[in-house]
DNA sequence: TATAACCTGAACAAGACTGTACGACTTAGC
DNA sequence: GCTAAGTCGTACAGTCTTGTTCAGGTTATA
């Protein structure tokens, strides 16, 4: 789901569409205002070809968003989220913290071009994964229960995103990012009155 | 500094300039792409009047940014940041968490229109205030020292910003915001191995 | 009250982006 | 190899934004 016809079109058409969607995800991930000319150029196709496959800007954004989420899910599906929720959280962060970066700007573009219902629909999948992890951690007594789950999920993503900003600002190198995020979020999720776990080295 | 001439111009001119800067801060705070027509309309003046006082878009953005920071500093100057750093942090959050909201989108506009040097210059003041507080909390043994100060400051602002997102999404009411932020950041700042302090009710 | 500063709408030029149309060239696939 | 599908560059219309100019009306201030 999310991709264009993969059966009726010709091989080179499919190749073009793929290049466009990929370029769109990259360009819009960098700059939500990226023009269709820019995307077409980055994809190595003419602007007219883009319009042959996508009838409007919104369709391109939708396709790029879907692709980014598909890629993200693909990566996140390989992560083992069972066992100690604190370790699972660390694995989740290690695998996915850089995924947030590209999608963040894309979401801005999506919010301007797509209907709220579509946005919600696209976001339901990935959000559920983390929510479940946090909920399990709370049920097993490892995470605090004095704050709403939605808030905790948002904090997690927010801190991940802040790491990418720090990297861009040159105040953080990407090899330390996962550690910093884990150490921060793990502490933030700790129940008041109990000690903060030592972060993994 | 930051404001236009307040002596040479006539009274109604000063009034117009003020209305424009105020409207710009509001409009750009909502949407960093807001056009000058939009800003002029919101200020209740003609578009030409705007150009009579500001020679370019960048000048408007700069003025709006300066104004927002001035207002922020004004508010933050009333906050007592002495005493127990954990309580001081709570007071800081309570006073200023909503200030981050308006400035965040403004910063996006500023980053596109202003020179990096100017951005840095504008940001130096407010950043120093929090940095000093965090540094003091570390020196007094209340905050963790295993993460860089710049990272901790960024986490604080990031979590503040995430609160405004949660409010917009309808998952949080603004009366709970300060408490959630404080509870989260206080835990995040706690040294590993030591217990998380109970948040203020 | 006189005058200079100020405000105004209308209109213009230049540039960017979207979406569409056309004719000609290339290529996939039977 | 033939044909339809796909691609290409160019060009056009429509819209939007940024700045600028101009002539005429309003208002602060001395």
Automatic annotation (TrEMBL), chains A, B:
A UniProt-annotated Pfam family: TetR_N
Domain of life of the organism encoding this protein: Bacteria
DNA-binding region, residues: 35-54
Annotated ranges, domain HTH tetR-type: 14-72
InterPro entries in the cross-refs: Homeodomain-like_sf, HTH-type_TetR-like_transc_reg, HTH_TetR, Tet_transcr_reg_TetR-rel_C_sf
Keywords: DNA-binding, Transcription, Transcription regulation
PANTHER family linked: HTH-TYPE TRANSCRIPTIONAL REGULATOR BETI, HTH-TYPE TRANSCRIPTIONAL REGULATOR RUTR
This protein's name: TetR/AcrR family transcriptional regulator
Organism: Streptomyces polyasparticus
